[in-house]
Amino acid sequence: MTKKIILASNSPRRMELLKNCNIIFDVVPHKFDEKSSKVKNPIKFAEFSAFNKAASISILPEFQDKFVLGVDTIVVFKNKILGKPENKNEAEKYIRMMSGKKNTVISGISLINKQDNISMINHCVSKVYFNKLHESFIKYYLDNNHWEGYAGGYAIQGIFSLVIKKIIGSYTNIVGLPMEVLFDMLNKLKLFP
């Protein structure tokens, strides 16, 4: 890669995906208030959040000549955006209502370079089908706090992989960063390889 990117996130999953693809990056956590968005449309919501995460870093003087990557991943169930559960009860509500059903994972992805006046926004949509969850699994999952820090209360790459019936679309999108979309964006900017 010719230029290092700035990842406006401290998500371990996003860092791991970038490392696995030999993309050089530094981490600078974004300064965007994720709860401030009033956007209702799920795709626009994810894109808006991703853009504002990247923008919150790209405006800082030391990063204006860098490519800043902002990503926002949400889970949508019956047209309702499910964020990260605030507690165990909310996590239980989320996974029980999605048990045996389909949910949609949407990631907004943005690359901004303020100095070069570059601002790209894209998104990726994947479908996730859950098996019917057994009571013993639900109890174990909640009691061991496997839901913490994940949109919709689950992570496909963790123990929840045991109860996924099938997925349609990008796996890395569900993890939290659609690598094929990022690769396409980096290619357009001639930043990779």
Assign the structural class, choosing from mainly alpha, mainly beta, alpha/beta, alpha+beta, or little secondary structure.
alpha/beta
CATH class descriptor name: Alpha Beta
**Could you give the order of the helices and strands?**
EHEHEEHEEHEHH
CATH architecture: Alpha-Beta Complex
**Share of residues in strands:** 25-35%
Overall number of structural domains = 1
Query: Looking at the structure, what is the overall shape?
Result: elongated
Please give a structural write-up.
The chain is an alpha/beta fold. It has one domain: Maf protein, CATH 3.90.950.10. The protein is built from six helices and seven strands, in the order βαβαββαββαβαα. The mean pLDDT is 95.
Secondary structure layout:
Elements: E1 5-7, H1 12-20, E2 25-27, H2 42-58, E3 67-77, E4 80-82, H3 88-98, E5 102-113, E6 118-130, H4 135-143, E7 164-168, H5 171-175, H6 179-188
